[in-house]
Amino acid sequence: MVIDHDFYMRLALHEAWKYQTLTYPNPPVGAVILDKHGKIVSIAAHHEAGKPHAELLAVTEAVRVQGDKQIDHYTTPQQQYDYLCNRYTNAFQGATIYVTLEPCTHHGKTPPCAHLLDALGFSTIVIGTQDPNPKASGGCTLLKRKSNVTVVEDVLKEQCDALLYPFHNWQNNIPFVFFKLAKFQNGTISGKNVSSLESRKLVHRIRTKIDLLVIGGDTVRIDRPRLDARLVQSKQVPDILIYTRNPNTIDRNIPLFHVSGREVFIENSFSRLKNYKNIMIEGGAGMFAKTRSLVDYYLFFTAPHFREGYTIDLNANLKSLHSYNNSSDTIAWFQNMQKDNQ
């Protein structure tokens, strides 16, 4: 039987993109497991730094759907890892796992995934791209030494590398800058709460992971925002850069100045971005135009209906990377092809 590796890797990528930026500074990673009959038994993705990696989550779900309720008694990655290695040694013979990133060999906050896959006896391991982190890489080499394991590398490598781009920047101490925009289906950006509550909660989760949030002076003057993460009950907030040529017109009494744990800068340049590593920009047409040379990726939330009002022209040199739907909106990531050295 000929297996379409691209198909299953796309499933792993689709799951991983849901957690882009949320795993920072870890890379987002997706995994899919097929049993020995070629049936999908689990799809998973890494959710957050310090939490189980995609491979461990996928294996945990695979044994759970097969009736093992004991796994739910183990709550830490190390406990789950130990339980699986002890109970399921070589139990996955004939099975295949697809992973967007080379399984790690490093034992940090979580145990090494390459050793887990080896212990469980997976027959085929399909990998999207190699791990650029020298501390964690080497999983392919380790697994290829096993005579009973087939390792397939570089499946949809370009797409997996695009998923990994923010992590690549972090590894190389380069700021990753993305522009977030909420709009209606006809391009209108007027009004508050353009996106659904579910999408707004995602944005608040993203705010807990970024270092700096950049916003225009007009938005601050008109909307008087708080720019916190209250929708996800988190006190983790980014610093704020208010970009404006008229700093004296910014009211320091608005809510964003009174959120603890942050610094707020009011400046007429973007030079401060070089001091941060994970940066989100929010704004309308003016900010969109002013930051074209700075932005790596764009994140668009599109509501599934039309509204009259001010529209933004997105006729730009953007490359579609991935899109998916939550219960209400379309969430799409694009690469800025006009950025220097992109």
What are its keywords?
342 residues; Cytidine Deaminase, domain 2; Dihydrofolate Reductase, subunit A; 8-stranded mixed β-sheet; 5-stranded mixed β-sheet
Task: Write up this protein.
The protein has 9 helices and 13 strands. Helix 4 links the parallel strand 3 and strand 4. The mean pLDDT is 91. The longest helix has 15 residues. It folds into 2 domains: 167 residues, Cytidine Deaminase, domain 2; 161 residues, Dihydrofolate Reductase, subunit A, CATH 3.40.430.10. It has an 8-stranded mixed sheet. Helices cover 26% and strands 22% of the residues.
Secondary-structure blueprint of this entry?
Elements (H helix, E strand, L loop, with lengths): L4 H13 L12 E5 L5 E6 L8 H12 L11 H11 L8 E6 L11 H8 L3 E6 L9 H6 L5 E3 L4 H15 L4 E9 L12 H11 L4 E5 H7 L15 E5 L20 E4 L10 E5 L2 H6 L6 E7 L14 E8 L4 E7 L6
Parallel strand pairs: 3-4, 4-5, 6-10, 6-11, 7-8, 7-10, 8-9
Antiparallel strand pairs: 1-2, 1-3, 11-13, 12-13
